[in-house]
Amino acid sequence: MGSIDSRLRRLEEQGNRCSECGHAPDERRPPAVVDEECPDKSFDGDPYETCGRCGRPLYVVLRVVYDPPAGEEGGGGYRWP
After folding, report:
1. How many angstroms from the chain centroid is the CA of residue 54?
2. pTM (2 decimals)?
3. pLDDT tens digits, the chain, 81 residues: what are they?
4. N or C, which end of the chain is more exposed by having fewer CB within 10 Å?
5. In the chain, what are the domain boundaries?
C-alpha cells in the first residue's frame, strides 16, 4: 500500500497540473513568436500545438505585424510622444 499512498500524495501535490504537459490552467505558457516576414526568426514547430491529454495550448502565440512607414498610405501607426 505504500506505493499507492506515495503516488496519491504526489498527484495531490501537483494540484490541477496536467501530468503530460505539466501546465496548470491559469499558468503562463512560453511564447511562440510568428513573424511571416522573417520566417528564420519565427518559432520552429507548430505554435498552435495542444497537449494530447488536457487539450490546452502549449504556447502563447505572438504574431508580429508590421505597419507601413509613416509616409505611405495607411502607414504611420502610433507615434511615441
Report:
1. 15
2. 0.60
3. 577 878 777 666 656 888 899 888 888 899 999 998 888 888 999 999 999 999 999 999 998 887 777 666 666 655 555
4. C
5. 2-63
Q: Is 34 exposed, middle or buried (0-12, 13-18, 19+ CB in 10 A)?
A: middle
- DSSP per residue over 27-65, as a string? SPPPEEEE-TT-GGGS-SS-TT-B-TTT--BSSEEEE--
Q: Which amino acid would we find at residue 20?
A: E
Assign 2 to helix, strand or coil.
helix
Q: Report the C-alpha gap between 3 and 68 in whole angstroms.
A: 62
